[in-house]
Amino acid sequence: MRRAALAFLAVLGLAAEEPLHEMGPFPTREMFPLYLPTMAYQPVDPAPLGRGRWRWALHWVEANTFQFSDVFEHNPPRDTSGRVAITRAYMEAHLPEYASLPVVYFFDEEIARFELEGRYGLTDRTDLWFRLPVQNHTGGFLDPLIEDFHHLGFEQFGRDLVLQNQVTLAVAQYGKVSFFNDERILGKTQDPVFGLTQRLLQTPAWTLSATFSLKPPLTHTYDVYRSGWDQSYGVTALWRAAPRHVFYLGGAFVQRPHGSPDYTAIGFRDGVGLHATWEYRRWRRTQPFLQLYWQSGYLHPQPYQHFDQPSLQHDLGVHWHWTPHTTLTFHYMNNVTHWGNTADMALGASLTAHF
User: Fold this and answer.
1) Which of 31, 135, 190, 304 suits 112 as a labelling partner, its CA being 20 to 30 A distant?
2) Within 13 Å and on the Cβ side, how many CA atoms surround 29?
3) Tens digits of per-residue pLDDT, 35-92?
């Protein structure tokens, strides 16, 4: 028993000295409802895993959205008896006031996205990877927390006028409802994404890779919108600036061809995404990071909305290397720009394993 215990401790000691795996930039994704049918820019790790190696990850993110057309700021929902439930009947009763406007929208929902990510080292320079997401669309649980936060001085107009934790997605064109949903959607599979990463440059300080990804149109979002064969072409880099400071940088062009008639009618544009990440490595097992996530506007200019404007968000998190081969990540995402074209905030956690 003594020898077995000593051998076990020796294995633990060796494991503790084993180099930790690079995590790469966090695969941040925009969770605004309009962005869900199409491909959004996501950062990609530039460092190949090595021939025959695997990395598996399970990501969870809970994203809260409360956004609406600017016209509601001048004519907000009111009810003398308390908070307003935004129903289809409510929208239809008030939409004649906006019959001259091409588009009016109201989005209030919370999305839990679970994403399985797998990556395989095809060669020492080339990795293949995929992402398979499943989503729940509900009223969620974050509304009270967000309202309490806004009471500190970061008020978001309208949150205290409508019911908490409701699901309402409404789009109207010239005073008539063109899309409405107030029902929960559970366990909805989204389109997978398949990708390839090819290392172009390797020095002691730099790693530079090219990336390509493809999202085949296999599912419908909200049972209505089906994208085209979305593609992404980009570059991603790792800069080891100092022993305690590592930076990830990258960007990509996202091509969004036409899909189903309802999807195409939204008018998605091709876009560009960028990321810049700082990872602090003072401690061996704990690595905090701050990632900036920028995207170009994704729709053409329209009255009383800002979907044509670019957006900048931050993703603040920490990697905790639980064992030499498994890592837990916790992160918090929020917008820096306030154009009403991003999810308001998101909390997330990930479990990553290397083999």
Assistant:
1) 304
2) 25
3) 999 999 999 999 999 999 999 999 999 999 888 887 776 666 666 566 777 778 878 8
